[in-house]
Amino acid sequence: EIVLTQSPGTLSLSPGERATLSCRASQSVSSTYLAWYQQKPGQAPRLLIYGASTRATGIPDRFSGSGSGTDFTLTISRLEPEDFAVYYCQQYDGSWTFGQGTKVEIK
Amino acid sequence: EVQVVESGGGLVQPGGSLRLSCEASGFTFSSNAMSWVRQAPGKGLEWVSAISSSGDHTYYADSVKGRFTISRDNSQNTLYLQMNSLRAEDTAVYYCAKELRIAGTTVAFDYWGQGTLVTVSS
Description:
- The complex is a heterodimer of chains A (107) and B (122).
- With 107 residues, chain A is mostly beta strands.
- Helices cover 0% and strands 56% of the residues of chain A.
- In chain A, the strands form two sheets. In chain A, strands 2, 4, 5, 6, 8, 9 and 10 form a seven-stranded mixed beta sheet that branches. Chain A has a three-stranded antiparallel beta sheet with strand order 1-3-7, with no helix packed on it.
- In chain B, strands 2, 4, 5, 6, 9, 10 and 11 form a seven-stranded mixed beta sheet that branches. A four-stranded antiparallel beta sheet of chain B has the order 1-3-8-7, with no helix packed on it.
- Chain B is globular and about 45 Å long.
- Chain B starts with a strand and ends with a strand.
- The chains are: A mainly beta (107), B mainly beta (122).
- The A-B interface holds A 32-33, 35, 37, 39, 43-47, 50-51, 56-57, 88, 90, 92, 95-101 and B 35, 37, 44-47, 50, 59, 61, 95, 100, 102, 105-110, 112-115.
């Protein structure tokens, strides 16, 4: 089973700043099957990025995904107040697994 | 508008059973694979089970294999999760999720319900 490790655990930033979130896999992951989700307290996860770099429907272009192999990144170019949340990466290798999450909090 | 609405959660004793339901609307349910994903209180996301669009193929996480059964009724646009031999560690919010397929392969989960809480405790 591929293990996804997200870093940092918590990111403390101010609105307007750039956020860079990392997702590292224990083995190589096909980019096709790498996705990112946002989750706010009390809400369901929301798909942001699939295929490592394709934004889902309705996702603002300040969100971008990149990476390949074992290292993937989610970047939020300029944080808006509504972007403070927990972010998860996800992969598929015959079974779906998620990273443990990165919390983006207001500094 | 795509909607998926879970129901059936509640408090159950260890060793007990529960059946979750997920009613879907706003998309062609019979053409889409579906999954269940759970989240223990204060924890991350864990994929539980998936089912093909026709229901012919089912998949399970090792943690629930042999205890949980996923099924669907395409005539009722409803997904189910039968949970038997429940354990304290099964306590979680259970989400129903629609799978996003691109070029014939599932690449992510694009619509999620709000979840239903299952608590396993004596």
